[in-house]
Amino acid sequence: MQTNCERTGNEQAQIELLCQMEELAAKKAGIYSRLLIDAQLAKKMEELQTRHTERKKALEELLYGKAKKTKGEGQVRGEDK
User: Fold this and answer.
1) pLDDT score for 81
2) SS3 26
3) Is the dihedral of CA 15, 16, 20, 23 positive or negative?
């Protein structure tokens, strides 16, 4: 496996673009899951959101060596930092 030093700038940029795309896809799936009336379809969209989030974390691990902590991750709702 290549380290950060062994990747070209183009490869780095492509992985960063993929991270952004996965983040956007996860956000959209989350929004759709809250808007849907059909409970089964909403659940499928939540599962899709989770898969996009996991792929984004995997890409970040590839880029940075470990996944960045996202806003609110690991935090209980209503709990301050």
Assistant:
1) 41
2) helix
3) positive
Residue 65 has pLDDT above 80, yes or no: yes
Task: Please enumerate in sequence order all residues whose Cβ is within 8 A of that of 33, keeping only pairs 6 or more positions apart, or say none.
Answer: 42, 43, 45, 46, 49
User: Which tokens hold the place of 29?
Assistant: 């799936």
Nearest to 15 by CA among 47, 57, 49, 51: 57
Per-position b or e across 16-54, b if 16+ CB within 10 A of its CB: eebbeebbebbeebbebbeeeeeeeeeeebeebbeebbe
Return the residue matching tokens 């996991």.
54
The owner of tokens 């806003």 is 71
**Distances, alpha carbon 28 to alpha carbons 2, 19, 25, in Å:** 31, 14, 5
